[in-house]
Amino acid sequence: MRSPRILAVDVGASHVACGVFTAGATGRLVLQHFAYETHSPDPSNESRWAVEVAQSLGSVGSRRKLGGTSALAVPGHLALTKFVKTPSVAKEKRGKIIGFEAAENIPYPLEEVVWDYAVVSDDSFDLEVMLAAVKFDAMQALCTSADASGFPVERAIPAGLALRHSFRYSHPQVHDSVVVANIGARSTNLLFLDNGRFYLRTLPLAGNTVTHSIAEELRIDFAQAETLKVQVLSGHSDLPASSPSRLAVQRSAANFAGRLQLEITRSTINHRRQSGAAAPVALYVTGGGSQMPDLPAALAEKLKISVERFEPLRQVDLSADARAAGAESAQAALADLVGLATRLVVPDEPEASLLPPAITETIAFRKRQPAFIAAAVLGVLALLPPIVYFHSVASATLQHVARIDDQLMPLRSLEHRNAENLRQIDDARKQIAALRGAYDTKANWVNFFADLQDRLVKIEDVWLDRLEVVRPVADLNDLAAAPTPPPAATDAPAASGETPPPAENAPPPEPQPPPPPPAVPVRLALSGRLLDVANPQSKVSAESFERVKRLLASFTDSDFIAAVENERFDNNQNGLLRFDFTLVVNPKKPL
Question: CA-to-CA distance for 71 and 48, rounded, in angstroms?
Fold first, then answer.
């Protein structure tokens, strides 16, 4: 069985550190693999920080062949921690109270942050908890960068909490009140420990403070000041002792030590006033910013307490691969890595998860996947017997259907011929209907003109100049193409009123055609003149208007005409009355 392992990832403002830990046979942590990669700490590149983290992790993955699900320490410049005290309540009721306290103490809407809490102490009277929060967008970007580089995050806790785990594991014998300062490039985590209780404060005072001071004094850019700082403070600079650049670095480092001492003193006083903790007896410094050679001595002189360098690897065994990768020389940057790995040997440590909900749900689903897969396999195995049985039944049924299909082939051929014959009969009916319509209307024109002549004669002195047929869109060809209604059934219906069942071996009924579209009537546009015999040299008289109106009104009595429309008159010519009108042909007497 594979032993448990943790891939710890510490992302700082200027570096990325990765370590693979396992639990040894003696119960001590073992650092199997280690990798360290630096990137620019320039705060002006803050928008590119997540990209540089992804590039550094990608370099670690390709160079050291590391990767897989990881535990992440959220750096202090991203994570916010608040300590609150409430009355002690049952565990099942803590959620509502702590949620209220989170809304009151976290300076952002809770829907915009990822937050959690860890219990600091519970003495049955007071409950003290640490609230931890990080902006959702920043945490999502960090997790996305890690995932894209091959280090998907399955656990994320504040770096200050990882520092607490690391110190407790490395110094289990220390029960006095002490302070641990993890000095990074952009922030410093101050950890106050008093027996089992702890308190965290993040200071915006770190290694970049020294670099900014050097850059301002020497009027150089940040990258040059950072290089100069590292060379001088590490003892690798060739500058003479009286060089202005070396003196600027030393002054900036001394000023930083003084400011850090003031912040530690102020934080200690506030912490003791609020919690009643004892005065610290020692200060432990770690982190990249703590490697300034004179820092411990300067702090010890001003704080009047013991100042030591924190050694996070004192309880950790190193593999040959980790030693070759430089784990011992990079010990100052390993405090958070060790704190992420202590869960292997101290599983009941307080935790505050800062993973976004979507990633948490994905991890929970991934953990349940083996159970889902096992259930699916059992379900498939349980279905195999009925599947085999129904498959055999289906095969036999298909064979039976194939035999019946062979018997139906002659009948299908006959059905096809019948369908073709029915189609030909339908075409013949349409042609007959068209011919019948033409025959019925053949004599209508002669009768219509005779009727028209009779009506003109009755009026006298009137004649037509124009007669034009205005046919609708549906002409005779469309009428011929229209389906005819089905023939009436010859058999009488059953006495009971129900439809009788079809006779045995009777042919299938013919499909019923759709009803023909409504007929659009034909119109006749006519123009004519009426002679006013009594007034040949003047405007036509009113009596002539009446005669024409009687003519038009008489057309409505004709069997061929349904209506008279669009009547117009023109009496501009002496002795003549011009008129235009439209006759709507009766559809029952088509022309």
Answer: 22
Q: How far apart are CA 555 and CA 454, in angstroms?
A: 11
Does pTM surpass 0.90? Answer: no
Looking at the predicted structure, is the pLDDT value of residue 421 above 50? yes
The whole-number average pLDDT for the span 437-458 is 83
| 381 and 456 together in one domain | no
Segment holding 497, helix H or strand E: none
Q: Which residue has the tokens 């008093």?
A: 194
Task: Give the model's pLDDT for residue 508.
Answer: 54
Establish if 42 belongs to a structural domain. no
**Residue 164, number of CB atoms within 10 A of its CB:** 27
Burial class (CB in 10 A: 0-12, 13-18, 19+), 491: exposed
A 10 A CB-CB count for 485 gives 9
Q: Please work out, in degrees rounded to the nearest 5, the angle formed at the alpha carbon of residue 309 by the alpha carbons of 201 and 341.
A: 70
Q: Residue 121: beta bridge partners? A: 128
> Which residues, at least 6 apart from 580, have a Cβ–Cβ distance to it below 8 Å?
525, 526, 527, 566, 567, 568
Helix then strand then coil, % of the chain, to nearest 5: 45, 25, 30
Give the length of the chain. Answer: 591
3-state secondary structure of 471: coil
Distances (CA, A) of 540 to 251, 298, 577: 125, 131, 6
Contacts of 88 (CB under 8 A, 6+ apart): 122, 123, 124, 125, 126, 127
pLDDT tens across 284-295, in order?
999 998 989 889
Cβ proximity of 119 and 74 under 8 Å: no
CA distance 201 to 219: 32
Domain check: are 236 and 179 in the same one? yes
528 falls within a domain:
yes
- β-strand partners of 307: 283
* Distance between first and last Cα of the chain: 101
Residue at a domain's end among 312, 340, 355: 312
Q: Are 344 and 4 in contact (CB under 8 A)?
A: yes
Q: Which of 312, 341, 368 delimits the end of a domain? A: 312
- Joined tokens for residue 445: 């024109």
DSSP string spanning 13-24?
Answer: SSEEEEEEEEE-
Q: How many domains does the chain have?
A: 3
Residue 531 half-sphere exposure, CB side, CA atoms within 13 Å? 9
pLDDT for the residue 296: 93
Residue 362 has φ and ψ, to the nearest 5°, of -65, -40
Range list of H helices, 501-585: 542-555
- Which residues are within 8 A (CB) of 96 and not within 5 positions of it... i.e. 6 or more apart? none
Looking at the structure, do residues 424 and 523 belong to the same domain, yes or no? no
